[in-house]
């Protein structure tokens, strides 16, 4: 039998399953890039302000480590998109890797691929289909982004270089996902390994960029994200560099296909370690089991949030130098909703961290559905564990986990900004308060996943769709002058803008009440439906 037979069928199946998720995330990336250009045009009214902002950014080690270096300080395109060059490549790579794992290892873990293999399905069909879907997604994303940037007024060559740079990063990490899917028996572990590779790549890029004398610049060339940055869109447009991720992808595909031949269907190259025959006393409750299942990802997210908080707080001490023109200050104040430019920056970045914490809440709540479809929930519920206790254990992990993450970010930014500004005793409680007010909106988004799980479990991934819509409205609603009723649809639009802004308890109470009502409704509907 042909090793690739059935590939077309699996491609159509994957596209049907992701018919909402893929378009939504393409739109999110495209609007993010176009919105960043529009905001920059409003920020920098003249060339001198543009060059001064670029030079200030390059002079800040924290900014260079976080976003990368601006190669052409007079280029509107590069200054507009420098925050989305390396960081955007990271996110596109994450999307591509997750798509490959989703349609390979996840299918094996659930047993669906084994059922399909009982028919006419080649050994490499699943991997090939997943790579086609992932590669097609990032290529379309890159091309549509290029067209959107051209429509925003940027030049054609630079726009295509930027779009193809994103696509190149996605292709590289699609290959990484193809390899990690062969290593472990768990989709979560495969995604975790992909995230680790992404993190290492980002750190290598940061080390190479932050070198003051250029002595470690070569380290960036060890990173797929560094390759994307070296395309230098709008600053030379070195599209030939994209041959490197293409070669990298071919090598990883060859490695993945070789690994497939060395393992059985459903097994990984690294077998899981068997646990003790009896659980410890600390695991003899649904809540303890939920903590055991979520703790690995929580620790990883917690470290990332602490690092982000420290970086944001450090950057805040220099934000006055970065934003110099009156129009730039007015725009940042508008986004942050406060008068002080430093507080406006911190409020805006804390809102972004609230969005990121929501992603953890969605991921943690979605674990309910994966436990159910993998038939691990039913044996638990066949014992003395009630549905409410099982559901509540995972929901509690999602709610407490998001709370801990955003507070860790607030603590890190308070310590860092307080140390830089010389008022740590004041900054730490202010930033913890700014973090805490993000929680009602975060919990509401998590509660939407809970009610979807209880009422319509097959639509539970729609939580990501709603999240993408809220993200677009919250980040670009005012920039694109959307009507107020549409902006009000996003729970993040009702969060008080702290530090420095006016605090009103009314929206906080309303968001909390709605989140609680949705969560209770999710519990009630779950109790009345069949498992599976």
From TrEMBL:
The chain crosses the membrane at residues 20-41, 81-101, 121-148, 160-183, 239-260, 298-316, 395-415, 435-457, 464-487, 507-526. Keywords: Membrane, Transmembrane, Transmembrane helix. This is ABC-2 type transport system permease protein.
